[in-house]
Amino acid sequence: MENYTMEGRTYRYYGQEAPLYPFGYGLSYTTFHYRDLVLSPPVLPVCANLSVSVVLENTGLRDGEEVVQLYLRWEQSSVPVPRWQLVAFRRVAVLAGQETKLSFQVLAGQRAVWAQDWRLEPGTFTLFAGGQQPGQKTRAPSEVLSARFSVTGTARPLRGC
Question: Which EC class is the enzyme in (predicted)?
């Protein structure tokens, strides 16, 4: 086998075709609302980590659990990359009518791309936070928030950070 690309072999690279049951697919007995997605800092050096916080509110009448998912999208890259990459997730129990603020760290290495070596590149990225993948169409409603951040500096090998 000489072609090791993932294009056409996994839904992460299919373009606009959505998988039948994507990661996080499922139903709940309650509803959730996401708000206040904050990325800090919004502009960071190439080797820095990103802090993320988001507020999750249970707007339903029952206690419930939600799997909060964070996805990263490269807006431009020197090599082919997935449409988006899962970078963090956490199952959270929230009582009916209550809310919780969640904090995550997106490590610099999670932005690395493979170009004969793992490399970190400057550019613009979009981070998605919600109960499902970005653009997912399901019968169970769930929000996905998004925010952009920028990485400055010059491209460098991941091991150089």
Answer: hydrolase
Whole-angstrom Cα distance, residue 120 to residue 45?
A: 10
**What is the b/e burial string over 37-49, where b = at least 16 CB atoms within 10 angstroms of the residue's CB?**
bebeeeebebebe
The reply to whether 92 falls in a domain is: yes
Tell me the CATH number at 155: 2.60.40.10
Instruction: Give the pTM.
Output: 0.84
Instruction: Band the pLDDT of 140: cuts 50, 70, 90.
Output: low
**Within a domain: 16:** no
* CA pair distance 117, 159, nearest whole angstrom: 9
Q: Could you tell me which of 126, 147, 3 has the C-alpha nearest to residue 73?
A: 126
